[in-house]
Amino acid sequence: MKTVLTLFIFFIATLTANATSQSGDILIWKGDTLTLFSNPLEMRPDWKKLHNIIIAELEKEDQRLYPQKYKGEVEELGSTACWRGYTVEWKIVDDKIYLNNIYACYDRKVKINLKKLFYKEFSFDLLFAKWINGKLFVPKGKCIEWVNFGYKSIFENEIVLEFKEGVLKETTSYSNYIKKSSKFTLDQHLDYLDFIYSHVNWEKLPDLKDYHYQVFVGIQPTNEGAIDSILWKYTYMIYGAKEITDRNNVFIKEAVRIAKLMPDWDVIYQRDSIVARGISVVFDKYSKKKYMHKK
Fold it and tell me: What are the structural domain ranges in the chain?
């Protein structure tokens, strides 16, 4: 399956529960407690094995601390906003990043014994995270666009920290902003779904029967909010378990045609680049019945 485009705001709500907005890890740096839009633990080659151990150990600790909860039927402790089930706390000291704590999302008292988990690597009270190579993202300030998907929400300020073998090598700060809002964003009386589906040429499409086709179209806007290009890498159709990328597919062509009819697009700058947008169009008999009369 293709990677979902950064900000498909028009169809993000159709994704599964695990795609909901996530609570991030914690970073303690320069006296501030910050949120990370990254999961540095997952940079370890043994992360999947560690993940299973962490979940099991947290459950044991939860039972030890709250035995009364386990006398009857145990309630689900997870959350769609914290799909891993735990939060990792990091600390940067003298430009080195350390793993400081791992605790359950729902209760900071339920935490991991780091010495037990990382006994070969652990020294003093911190674990030097020498496996971290690459960029970590720190959002700051006001949220200028909330997206119910992973760490895709955009904040007015952002810090990118680049590490090599656990050592901070570069820090870059960005100011993100909305340059232009589309007519759909500005006018609450305009409904983009009505616009999309009322422009579908239903009568020219094949008989839908009980089939369900969902097409995703990726768009790169210009600085003025027009379409600069169709992002074919992020343009495809889902039919059952199949992913179809044929540009000549009748449903893909129809969705692309509709995308080109959109009057304008939001223009949002993140890390000095215009954020890609997109739409989703569902072709099935229910959508046809609901919207065909609005043409």
Answer: 20-175, 179-294
* 278 CB neighbour count, 10 Å cutoff: 24
pTM of the model: 0.83
Which structure tokens are listed for 163? Answer: 């590490």
Spatial neighbors of 210 by CB under 8 A, at least 6 apart, are 285
The answer to whether 86 and 54 have CB atoms below 8 angstroms apart is yes
Question: E strands within the chain?
Answer: 25-29, 32-36, 86-93, 96-104, 107-111, 127-128, 134-145, 154-164, 167-175, 177-180, 213-221, 227-239, 242-244, 267-270, 273-274, 277-283
What digits encode the pLDDT tens for the residues 236-264?
Answer: 999 999 999 999 999 999 999 999 999 99
Cα dihedral 125→135→8→79 (10° resolution):
-10
